[in-house]
Amino acid sequence: MYMKQDITHISEQFEFKPFVENESAATSYESFVVCGMGGSHLSAGLMKIYNPELNIYIHRDYGLPTISKERFSKSLFVASSYSGNTEEVIDFANEACKAGYALAIISTGGALIEFAKEHSLPFILMPKTGAQPRNALGFSFVSLAKFIGGDKAVGEIQELAQKLQPGEIENQGKRLAASLKNKVPIIYSSRANQALAYSWKIKFNETTKIPAFHNIFPELNHNEMTGFDFISSTKDLSAKFHFIFLKDTHDHPKVLARMDVLKGQYEDRGFLVEVVDMVGQNKFEKIYNTIALADWTVYALAEKYGTDPEQVPMIEEFKKLIS
């Protein structure tokens, strides 16, 4: 029930006005290194969709990227963890601080905020609403934009508070969920929109508790698609897959052509293919309309399976086992 409210009211997250505590003098950065796990790094990928020219390195591991220190001498390192207690991100922050890199923190609290206060680091404290990280992308997106995109990007993002109407696509999500029952989703997109395909994938994993996968054009045309050119002895291996193509009219024309051709090839082989047209008056609207559709789809599918859309017990179990 709470997740449904989070989806319905996602627009309100864009009203958030991020305030930077311990803000230092204005500094110009040539690049950005963003560390986050799960839903906490998605905003960095979405920022790349908004502005492909941004030099953003996304780190999803312990420690620091294994690249020369000189390359990152004019970079801002950003540690992003919704809970503030993600151990990989805390390790990243510690190592970045030891190395003397410029470091900023984004979180709702926890150890990361205490670390920021202890070391007088700039940080943004996001609202703690109880939403799952994957459903708090509005807060994290606005916050990251404050550090990376500046006030102009923040202003454009905040306009989504009046423009987005997620309730209007709930039924579309329900229809898509109905076609996905008893299927394994595979989400395809252009390379430019890879962060969106990945977002769909993890929402199926975490909200619906089912396997899901993603890949990108044109790379998948050189390898993955041949795995579905089955013969009688391998047909059963492919029977459960359902494909979702995220299609943006601004994708490269040859990528759009590849989508059309592959859709026909898959359908000729008996696969279900759903094309999701990314709609909106600008990039931000396209991004979040597509994410809202994903949210409605995975939520409706969770209801069909009778799974808890909120909690992720296997992840919590895993955290206890490695502690």
Keywords, separated by commas or semicolons:
4-stranded parallel beta sheet, Rossmann fold, 6-stranded mixed beta sheet, 2 domains, alpha/beta, globular
Count of DSSP strands: 10
Order of adjacent strands in the largest pleated sheet: 1-6-5-4-2-3
Oligomer: single chain
**Number of structurally distinct domains:** 2
Q: What is the H-and-E element order? A: HHEEHEEHEHEHHHHEHEHEHEHH
The biggest beta sheet reads: 6 strands, mixed
Structural class: alpha/beta
Low-confidence stretches: none
Overall form:
globular
CATH superfamily assignment of the largest domain? Glucose-6-phosphate isomerase like protein, domain 1
- Tell me the name of the CATH class of the largest domain: Alpha Beta
The fold-level CATH name of the largest domain is Rossmann fold
Helix content: 40-55%
Radius of gyration: 20 Å
Question: Could you give the distance between the termini?
Answer: 31 Å
Q: Mean of the pLDDT scores?
A: 92
Q: Count every helix, treating DSSP H or I runs of 4 or more residues as helices.
A: 14
* CATH architecture heading of the largest domain: 3-Layer(aba) Sandwich
Q: What is the percentage of strand-forming residues?
A: 15-25%
